[in-house]
Amino acid sequence: MKKTKVFFLGLILIGGLLVALIPFNLVAYQERTLLDPIVVLDSGDETELSVTYQIQGEKPQHYAVIVGISDYKAISDLRFCDEDANDWYSYLADLGYDEIIVLGDNTSSYLKYDGVASEYNTKQALLEMISQIGSRDTIAFISSGHGSGDSRGASLLCMWDITAGEDGEDGYFWDYELAAILELAIADQVFVFLDHCFAGGFGEELMSMSNSQHVYFASTCDIMGMGWDAAQYNNGLWTYFFLEYALIDAFDSDPRTELETAFDYAAEAYPYPRGAHHPQEYDGDPDKPFFLW
Description:
21% strand, 7 helices, alpha/beta
């Protein structure tokens, strides 16, 4: 077994960040990360994954797995990740998505609810989605919650059961684990949206996949940045600016909105205009516009 220490920004840095908010006249947002150091035990074993694909139908299909965790099983809670999940669900359902799976916690309120977002359940939902798709289909993985990383350039999503673990998993959903699953997708378009601290660390893994030319990834921050719960918007800060401010309000929920254009519009208005907390975009094929429909 190898031990990987997970490091978090200290209180001194956090204080500095709060001071940095003053020029923007902003409230102090709640970070989507943990403050106490924890130790992750990782065996390093890689599980071989496989799926059986369906025959492509007459028209492209659209599938999504949405995660929004506000009330964690064993660590500190957040406030608006369930609202993030609800808003994304409403948006994709209105676009006409054929199947949307929503995973969350067991106390918050969801418009659609398919179970707790444990690491095991989330992986199974993604594999089930991938098993249904054809080569002209679109899939989406959208997640809001706590996030973290290690000292060597890796990032992770804190799933509902992090530090407690269920069904043989530990609740730490690493970037390489997500990439191993999404690399199985034969979809024409793979959309990933992460509103978690340190989520930018997923970009390198996703862009290294053999099917990365079909992938578009929008992250709330870079590999050492923060995501934020924003009370003034009742959303995660990046979810609000990308989904509500850009896709819905500015582009009137037009299903043919280029995500690259929406990203630029949202990032331009984002309260952190530069640095680690600025949103990140990873586009596997910059010459081809990416659409959610």
